[in-house]
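Support request, please re-run this one:
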Amino acid sequence: MGLNVMAALWPLRAGSLHVDFWVSERVLKKLARFFRAGDRV
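Re-run finished. Output below.
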């Protein structure tokens, strides 16, 4: 792959990484809330 192609794809890759991190963070928070609720019971 040429450097120009990689430079063009980098923002897309960085954006998808950011979205993946955001989604996983929300999922972890939901799981943590679920486990805390389970501990109370």
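DSSP finds one helix and no strands in the chain. The first helix runs from residue 3 to 40.
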